[in-house]
Amino acid sequence: MADYETIKYETKDNIAIVTVNRPQAMNALTSQVLDELYDVFGKISEDENVLAAILTGEGKAFVAGADIGEMSRLNSVEARLFSERGHRTMNRIENVNKPVIAAVNGFALGGGCELAMSCDIRIASAKAKFGQPEVGLGLIPGFGGNLRLSRLVGKGMAKYLIMTADMINAEEALRIGLVEKLTEPEELMAEAEKVAATIASKAPIAVSIAKDVINNGYDADMKTASAYEVNAFGIPFASEDMKEGTAAFLEKRKAVWKNR
């Protein structure tokens, strides 16, 4: 495993834990952070022992945004490349073949909100804050925020949050569907690990395929999405896990999964 300067990486049983580790800068996303996140999720994808991942931030912020100091020095061409870098990282997290849970411990603003939205499930501390404040800086969200936010909370609410640059609390984020679950701050990581462990206890190949079908079918018309699901449904039937899962059910015992 490579050594990282801006993130921490550890494994706990079959769960990978990735922590953005720039607390002195509220974990702001620089080009280096984006590249290190891209790299570590590539490793997570290839590690057969990892069945789920948790992404969080060190200190009182999840990620408070992209690094304004770095962005302030960019010209138009460089800004486009920075946006491409962000999209590359968010897309890898969104499409990695393992479920990814965002444990949002504090501020998730701008690029931090976009990072959380690239995860499959968001669990938030009651102290978490969310927002896309870019228009207040003369910018727009550039790491997928315009796109993912509208898909999560609806077009009208996404326009409201982005155009007003309003910051919302965790309870409001839950109400509008931006997060799936709230916890007390001291219980956040335990709850994230509990959810990750629950997912990891299921058939890995089935979890991976289900994620893929949801991601790829979400924006497709129903006819295309239905065909995609029908084709995907047959894939697990060629696996040992399907045979094991159905046998365990019929024999009233716990399944022992093999395919990872």
Description of the molecule:
This protein has two domains: about 5-200, 2-enoyl-CoA Hydratase, Chain A, domain 1 (Alpha-Beta Complex), CATH 3.90.226; about 205-250, Lyase 2-enoyl-coa Hydratase, Chain  A, domain 2. The chain has helices at about 30-45, 70, 75-95, 110-115, 145-155, 155-165, 170-175, 190-200, 205-215, 220-235, 240-250, and strands at about 5-10, 15-20, 50-55, 60-65, 100-105, 105-110, 120-125, 130, 165-170, 180-185. β1 (about 5-10) and β2 form a beta hairpin. It is built from eleven helices and ten strands. The mean pLDDT is about 95. α1 (about 30-45) runs parallel beside α3 (about 75-95), α4 crosses α5 (about 145-155) and α9 packs antiparallel against α10. The strands form two sheets. A six-stranded mixed β-sheet has the order 1-2-3-5-7-10, sandwiched between helices. The chain has a four-stranded mixed β-sheet with strand order 4-6-8-9. The protein is α/β, with parallel strands linked by helices.
Strand order of the biggest β-sheet: 1-2-3-5-7-10
Unreliable parts? none
Query: Cα-atom Rg, whole angstroms?
Result: 19 Å
The CATH superfamily of the largest domain is 2-enoyl-CoA Hydratase, Chain A, domain 1
Q: What would the keywords be for this entry?
A:
4-stranded mixed beta sheet; globular; 2-enoyl-CoA Hydratase, Chain A, domain 1; 10 strands; alpha/beta
Q: Summarize this, please?
A:
This protein is of the alpha/beta class and 260 residues long. The chain is 48% helix and 17% strand. The chain folds into two domains: 7-200, 2-enoyl-CoA Hydratase, Chain A, domain 1 (Alpha-Beta Complex); 204-250, Lyase 2-enoyl-coa Hydratase, Chain  A, domain 2 (Orthogonal Bundle), CATH 1.10.12.10.
